[in-house]
Design brief:
The protein has 159 residues and is mainly alpha-helical. It has 8 helices and no strands. The radius of gyration is 22 Å and the shape is elongated.
Length: 159
């Protein structure tokens, strides 16, 4: 199913940590630290190479898994959507977020609201922010408090 949470950033941690350990071992003359640093370096390099060799997630596979209730797949869709948005592909981001929203992902409701707000304004994004607030999204709820961006006059209190 492609990359997901796990030891993804661990390789990038182990490389400088191994360097610091090696330097400390050389300065103090401690051979054990130097030996440990080599182990950290080798593991770090292997993890970095392993992560680079993994195939990217297939959005179709993620969408099918998300529709079947796989929470990890839903997070994967959201991650792909946020990457697409950051890369300047808002249409792709919207399509992926809508798939995650179908699976009931509250965070994707919020992100879809943000995307729609960027394109069409706050009024167009209001339904997505409302769904996110109803789903328990803390920041979305703040928009509907008295004095919030979607409840400025105190009328029609929302969730």
């Amino acid at each position: 199913m492609g990359p997901g949470p796990g030891p993804r950033g661990l390789g990038y941690f182990l490389l400088p940590a191994g360097g610091a350990l090696s330097l400390t071992g050389v300065i103090t003359g401690n051979g054990t630290l130097i030996s440990l640093s080599w182990i950290m370096w080798v593991l770090g390099i292997l993890l970095v190479l392993w992560n680079r060799s993994r195939r990217p997630a297939d959005p179709r596979e993620l969408a099918a898994a998300a529709a079947a209730g796989d929470a990890r797949a839903v997070r994967g869709l959201r991650t792909l959507a946020l990457t697409a948005r950051a890369e300047g592909r808002p249409d792709t981001a919207e399509r992926l977020l809508r798939q995650a929203v179908k699976a009931g992902d509250v965070e994707s409701m919020w992100e879809l609201g943000r995307l729609v707000e960027q394109r069409e304004g706050l009024a167009a994004a209001e339904p997505w922010f409302r769904k996110a607030a109803e789903g328990g999204h803390a920041v979305a709820k703040r928009l509907f408090r008295p004095g919030g961006a979607l409840h400025p006059d105190g009328a029609d209190p929302a969730p």
